[in-house]
Amino acid sequence: MTPSDPALPPRLGSLTFHGPLSEARAARLLGRLAASGPADVLDIGCGWGELLLRLLDAVPGAEGVGIDVNGEDLARGRALAGERGLAGRVSFVEESALGTDRGPVDAILCLGSSQALCDPDLPHDPAAALRELRRLVRPGGRVVLGEGFWERTPTATELAGMWPGARADDHFSLGALVDLAIEAGFRPAWIETASAEEWEEFESGYRYDTEVWLAAHPGHPLAAETRARVDRQRSGWLNGYRGVLGIAYLTLVAVAGD
Known about the structure:
Elements: H1 23-35, E1 40-44, H2 50-58, E2 63-68, H3 71-83, E3 90-94, E4 105-111, H4 126-136, E5 137-150, H5 156-161, H6 174-183, E6 186-193, H7 196-216, H8 223-241, E7 245-254
Parallel strand pairs: 1-2, 1-4, 2-3, 4-5
Antiparallel strand pairs: 5-7, 6-7
């Protein structure tokens, strides 16, 4: 691009994690997972695999595979692995997770990506995703699942402000979600949820680079469509799911013999 036609900002360049997750919570999640000593780790919907890379760094000798359908994110993950001396212990693979045969493994990361385990032609089904996770992890293995839940039942106005076609049955309550995990063959070893501060850091970080770019280049040929997109995203949060949609981080242990 020439100076008069500046490039768009890097995609999600201000985010460390692709979700409402603080450094402190990530360290606690990974510390508990590393303590189980996994030999192999699968990251479903890995993005650039920040958590996967940190886990491999914390467990010498462990190997990992990250799968995603976004080639740009995977390339970022490979570059990070090279920078951290982990390229020989991790693979980033561009493929669908639906029906994957990349198990069983000792540990699975699936944060905000359970839809990748479900039939795309059907409504999102956390119960089906949990059954798939149980299939992919060894007895006694760990799964860290990041999954949406309703903090409370959304109003019709809030639903209208969210994503297109948002419905009250898009998510479960936290209690119902944990019950589904138990029914799938897990014990919920640790239950925690994203804080309001984590949500704000994520939502603002998600758009930060693009907002700064838009302010500097309002007349760029791509500015109008970019502005419309980020305005829709921000409105969906502020006028829809803010304070209504939660994210649960569940550390699940696969029951022996199931």
